[in-house]
Design brief:
The complex is a heterodimer. Chain A is α/β, with parallel strands linked by helices. The mean pLDDT of chain A is 96. Chain B has a three-stranded parallel beta sheet with strand order 1-2-3, sandwiched between helices. The model of chain B has no long low-confidence stretch (mean pLDDT 94). Classes of the chains: A alpha/beta, B alpha/beta. Chains A and B meet through helix 1, helix 2, helix 3, helix 4 and strand 7 of A and helix 1, strand 1, helix 2, helix 3 and strand 3 of B. Strand 7 of chain A pairs parallel with strand 1 of chain B, so a sheet runs across the interface.
């Protein structure tokens, strides 16, 4: 059983800690708990992945990990790319497993297998890579988030799986 | 902060009308972000789907995420997955 009161207490400690460590006093949560039901069965749905694990392709500019301000930019990763071309730029978690097998944070090959098995209808034409270390959440909430949502809408995506680093 | 970024982007995608589900190793953050659907897995940071080169394990976790997409009927649906980390003596 999930103890929400305990999670709330731990969350408040976390907010205090990041405020102290990163000067990130402007914490942010979603303004409303939006909920969209599935429009059609998953077997007919186009599915996209979003990861904040710092995933980018070998020929894309890595996320900027040198600054304490974070990097809220995004990378589009074509779904048909060889997953061995994925790289990880993130200094706030151990990227060793992701570098060994990108599927542990961006299960790009697993999505193709789910399509082949008929569990989902199709892979989106691209997935989204981000780098989650962003002490200022406003650029994620006001810029990156709406941009990602628009790109996925335009690509006809029906459902999204998000994975942190 | 990775988890806060996921929560904020998840909220915007959901707001645009696309159903979403996320994985979390930091439930205290995710549970307080007002997201639609999330599954808590007790794996270490950096290993949300499990161990490298263990596709069956990745599919187990993905299957639970897809199931939550299909079955959740209201916002802030948070479930805990039953898996435990065995490979390394390293936890959340």
């Amino acid at each position: 059983m999930i103890d929400r009161a305990e999670l709330r207490a731990r969350y408040e400690e976390w907010v205090e800690r990041i405020g102290r460590d990163h000067g990130a006093a402007n914490n942010r949560v979603n303004g409303h708990a939006w909920f969209s039901p599935l429009a059609k069965p998953l077997a007919q749905s186009t599915v996209a992945l979003v990861t904040t694990a710092g995933a980018h392709l070998d020929d894309q500019e890595p996320f900027n990990t040198a600054t304490s301000h974070g990097d809220p930019t995004i990378r589009t990763i074509p779904a048909d790319v060889d997953s061995a071309r994925l790289r990880f730029a993130h200094t706030h978690y151990d990227t060793a497993s992701a570098e060994d097998d990108p599927n542990v944070v961006l299960p790009i090959d697993r999505v193709h297998e789910l399509v082949a098995a008929g569990r989902i209808g199709a892979s989106a034409p691209f997935h989204i890579g981000m780098m989650g270390f962003n002490p200022d959440p406003s650029r994620v909430a006001d810029e990156a988030g709406p941009l990602v949502a628009r790109l996925l809408m335009e690509a006809g995506v029906d459902a999204v799986v998000l994975v942190p680093g | 902060m990775c988890h806060r970024s996921v929560g904020l982007v998840q909220g915007e995608i959901e707001r645009a009308g696309i159903p979403t589900v996320s994985l979390t190793m930091r439930p205290e953050i995710t549970a307080n972000m007002k997201v639609s659907r999330a599954a808590w897995v007790r794996f270490p940071l950096g290993n949300p789907l499990g161990e490298p080169h263990q596709p069956a394990q990745h599919h187990l976790v993905l299957s639970d995420l897809l199931h939550l997409l299909e079955t959740a009927t209201e916002a802030e649906s948070l479930v805990e997955l039953p898996y435990r980390w065995r490979r390394w003596e390293r936890w959340i």
